[in-house]
Write a structure and sequence with these properties.
Strands 1, 23, 24, 25, 46 and 47 form a six-stranded antiparallel sheet that branches. Strands 18, 19, 20, 21 and 22 form a five-stranded antiparallel sheet that branches. A four-stranded antiparallel sheet has the order 2-3-4-5, with no helix packed on it. By secondary structure, it is mainly β. The protein folds into three domains: 11-106, no CATH class; 111-363, TolB, C-terminal domain (Neuraminidase), CATH 2.120.10.30; 373-650, TolB, C-terminal domain (Neuraminidase), CATH 2.120.10. It contains five helices and 47 strands. The protein starts with 10 loop residues before the first helix and ends with a strand. The radius of gyration is 31 Å and the shape is globular.
Amino acid sequence: AGRKPFVGHDDIAVMKSILNDEPQPLSSSEQNNHRDLNRIILKMLSKKPEDRHASMAELCADLKKLQAFSARIQVSGSRKIISASIAVVLILIIIGLAVLLSQFSRSKQEKFLSSSSLKMYSIGTTSEIEGSPSFSPDGKKVMFSSRTIGAPVNYTMNWIKELETGTMTKIVEWGAATSWSPDGSQIAYATQKGIFIYDLTRHNSRQLADFGITPKWSPNGQEIVFSSNTAGLPADQCAIFLYYFKNATWKQISPSNGLQYIHPYWSPDGRWIICTGGQGSRKDFWLIEAATGKARSISNNGLWINNPVWCPSGQFIYYLSNQNGTFDIWRVPIDIKNGRLTGKPIQITTGLEVTSLEISHDGNKLIFVREESKEQIWCVPLDGKGEALKKAKLVMSNLSGTENIEVSPDGSQMVLETTYGGVRSLMLKSLLDNTEKILYKEQPAFAPTWSADGNWIAYDAGGGNQADVWRISANGGKAEKIIANSSADWSPTYSPDGNYLCYLSNRKGQFDLWIKELKTGEDQQVTNTPGSKSRGFWSHDAQKLAYYENCSEEDCCRIFVYELISQEISELWYIPDRRSTITDKLVWKADDAALYYLFRAWLPLCEISIKTKKVKTVLSFKQGELSPSGNRVFAVHNNILYFVVSNEAADIWIAEGLR
């Protein structure tokens, strides 16, 4: 025919044309007006299987008729009789087209499922921060949690919304909604006090376990799976547990191998539990057989994965990943019979920053939370004269995902660990002329720290157990690796005298603080305790290190101080009902007599005396005014507080058209 049956401006457009457009018949081309051949080809290219040949025998019969008819036709002039060999070639071409179309038809969802092929819409519920949405078994209702903007994550309320009428009903307070019972009569949720069941008919709650998060009901309603980092585990580990309604007991079903296992989810037949397992940001898919507890990794890529969801047909795992920048929805095919991944993952959405994911019981809809955050950095003098916030000055704006800020020793620059173009990057901000530049974005970078002379910035990159400590010149250039082990090395901090580098490492099985002497390269272990710890924070005289450490068995944390010369560790403060994170921050006061700390939004900046261990308020914040976005995102330099203000938004969305 001298042309292609399907065309487009690129490969994707051509593929979509194959699926959706009808090819022009050969008779429309001047180069071929063979009516019977045209009929066979168009029949082979029919979109619906029932319109195509029912079998290869039927196709061959049609082609033999064409061959016999063609052999009797003579073309005028110099044209030759259509030979049998040409007919054979035509047979091969047509069969190839049929196979190609069949493959595209069978893999329509696999190849072309994307945000452009889905109907996506917000179901606008409240003006607050929303999370943990899930469909009721009949698909007519949505359960979700919400909290006031700026409030701690645990200050939440659970709601149920009727999708048809929009009617909303408050269910329970101070919990995270996560799972409906198979019959839709109960919900499982988690609070700081553990796992609970709420009866939607009797309107009462009962406790199943005094620990745990992310409960998920089994398909038969007889068990609940959940994850937790308590129940006697080392504080830097998370495990998967199974609760049995039959005898009201629970047991750990994930391996005790030092990895963190979170986000469990049932297969539709109830045989498997899929979860993520790994260290830090690097995790793989793990599969646990519910009946036996046998567990194995089913991916070995160390991907940045989160929140796996098994679709009701059992054919796919949907999950979240930020391997291409922002957290988006991905899908990978799986064989539910043997629990093996059967193909490569495909990315479904782009640039959405998804934080929570669930699927409808009919498998046609995804429900998720899309998070948007516009951040600013402000500074305010800590002069103790009152009404300090009236003197606040804006330093930066239009930021997103800022986790650490550090001011250079001379106060002329600030380095930020932030998200730029969907990638976790290091950014430099001049505090003199207000210029900005991206310093590093080759791979996600965390926890930047300035060298004593201000010439270098160290950080960790690589993620999980592949993370190493790197450094890069403050003027830019090529980064170099300065601490590399087969284990994870995280969160470096330079000492103010330039002699040491403190960092976290799990080279001996648990995360502890280590110190590297920069001149000799010698490493010294500082801590040897099972509790998870923050990075170490140097005093200005470089003689002390302060750090947070979580209690191993209680819901609490402590602040410790390490003396470099005596190598003694002393407890400074006990903090009940709160656990720290690896990024929580402490800052030494200029005279090293106290430590600044900041717990959460709205709570004041405080200082704790090293000598008396007494706490006093330094600066108070009010709801609705400038308020730091969290404990870890602040810095103090020359008696000036720098802090991040976040304007959060998290809305519930639905993506429809998976099937």
